Protein 1
Amino acid sequence: MSDAKKVACVKGPLPGPRSRELFERWRKAEAQCAGYQAQVVWDHARGVVVTDVDGNTFLDWTSGVLVTNVGHCHPALVQAIQQASEKLLNNYECLNEPRVIAAEKLTSVLPRPLDRCFFLSTGSETVEAAVRIMKRKTGNYEVISFYGGFHGRTYAAAAAGGMPGPKKGYGPTLPGAIRAPYPYCYRCPFKAKPETCGMLCLEFLDDCVRANSTGSLAGLIVEPYQGASGFIFPPEGWLSRLEQWVRSKGLVFTVDEVQASYGRTGKFWAVEWEGVQPDLLCIGKGIGSGLPVSAIAARSEVIGVLGPGEMSSTMGGNPVASACVTAVIDIMLRENLAENARRMGELLGKRLREIQERSPYVGDVRGKGLVFGVELVKDKATKEPAPDLTRKLIDVAAQNGLLIGSVGVFGNVIRVAPPLVINEAELDESLEIFERSLGQL
Ligand SMILES: Cc1ncc(COP(=O)(O)O)c(C=O)c1O
């Protein structure tokens, strides 16, 4: 590709002067609890390209944090938000027309047999709602979830998670949280091989229940791929076999697609890959593509356990968020973004695997659609995690014009999750920067 066509352009060492000044002011004003990020202060963004306050331009592999699926500041989305905000900003539970339209639109694209939704504001809120509904529906209190799971930072969501961060100093956590191993095949807790193990971790579920349950099982919550713990993808068939197990126990089945939905994996919903039919679906991030909005989707007979006045949220279903929900779905369908994610994802996966062959640090590459984890190790034979290199790579890549973030139980996985509007030229350029940056570690 000729330099003239390149979009990434960083003019000097990061952070630039204006960014540095803003970082200094920020550190004095806001508590410093956020995760490690590139030394870049965003000013504006369009599509896959971010411009910082110093005028540097970057290609974006973060989508915020898997949020801006329709691309940053999609003009049709911005227009829908502007028009709605001129009319009405909030009216709480009194009905507004955009809310009705958004609910109809969302239920029209939900994977069957889900036929109802309820609007909330954050992903964690949907998980809190799911836990409550699972308990109400069954009259039981135990919820099964997974090692490495991340469902948010509120109380039930943190308890259901299997990451140390959200729970640290927050105990005792919710009684009845039972955790089972997730198929993290690169670091299998049973030291088994996916080709021959016969999904041992699924068989182990019965042992977990025998050892931990008091006989009050309500439901199970699972991510179709684990996000925060390192973009860990289960082997094909695992989720549908899990669904069979859940059905055999008569539990309420919740799939947390807060980050996996809205085309991210190459289908509108991640459950579509195996035709899995949950009772409850947690939806967040991409649903608003930038505005704080989330939803819980459900089978009507399951969510029907909540009567009038039993679920609400101050901002949930506000007219601006609702207009945003409708506009995002329209854009997703009109521009066929799930399909673009699938096509671009095939290229991305192939190229990342080639980079894995050439780099001494890339231990594993896994993903689907436009969500890949690149796990960095100090040594491919020992698989010793390399969190320091991961952090360094974030800075080096930013300096070269590519924004990346990290996840992982060991903080050593680069998340590759560009907006779903990315084209081949942008993918090429970003991959070239990524490999060059790896070579500079
Ligand atoms: C799978 C999953 N569930 C829930 C959440 C929590 O969402 P929020 O941060 O909007 O509360 C996240 C956030 O990253 C997530 O990835």
Protein 2
Amino acid sequence: MQDKIKKIRIQSASEINLAENSKQLENFRIKYLGRRGEVTLLLKDLAKLSPKQRPQIGKLINDLKKEIDSSIKTRNEEIKLKSAEDGEGDWIDLTMPGVKLPEGHLHPTTAAIQEITEIFSKIGYTRERYPEVETDWYAFEGLNMPKDHPARDEWETFFFSPKIVLTPHTSSGQLREMEKGKLPIRMINISKCYRRQSDVSHTPMFYQFEGLHIDKNISIANLKGTIDYFIKEFFSGKREFRLRPFHFRFTEPSFEIDITCDICQGKGVLENGQKCRLCKEGWLELGGAGMVHPNVLKAGKIDPKKYSGFAFGWGVERVLMMKPGMNIDDIRMIYKNDLRFLEQF
Ligand SMILES: [Zn+2]
């Protein structure tokens, strides 16, 4: 009996080690451990032994059984590993489309900033960025708004101290650009601005883009031409605009720019005869513009008798909302970081 056990141990070990696939291994498992397998039959023969011999031989047979079972498993792993290395594992159809990984994209504001930068770079404007924290001089005083002037109220500024403010508008970049001392100037300053306001059309933090063009003989005609060019490019030629006289301290004359409403096509009335809820009269306010005030040129150390210029400052999110088909009825959505909203762009 012990010789038989020894013989099966040697034979099974060599057979299992030489097996080349899992089918062969299964055949060996049946040959040794199956219902009529050689090891199983040995166990049945135990009954023929004397009670004294039984425990000792029984243990040997059980050990052999475990040994065969374990070497079949080990060999099976080796075969699997080898076929994976050889590329013979699960069949792969290389013509099937792959699993698509989630892909991010630019935030709509970032995309709008890039587009605005590109539009103005085509007509010679250079993108600039100026500080988010500014001194009172650049934000107000140098822009013809002396201390205690009521015009300051409109900016609802966050003051850190009487002299330091969170930049309330990109116009502060005008003086910084002039201070460089290089003329002519064609600057587009796109930066973050902060004001104490929050409703459907305002957020406490927002982006503005500020155009500044200073050269000899610059007139309102140049301003109008530049605005016309931007509006045609950014709104795909589908909008009209108008200059509406207004008052700002840092420009003279000053205007607000209105563009025709996308919802009612500038009619103020919808096709069903109802008044347009968005614009009420066909025009939407885009932002401010005007000829740079001589006092501001002086503050920037430019001689207003020799040079003139125009400036305009508009909200990036505001123009983004006015793009045809955007359909954003609350500006705060842009910064809520809600993927259901952002993934639509
Ligand atoms: Zn309208």
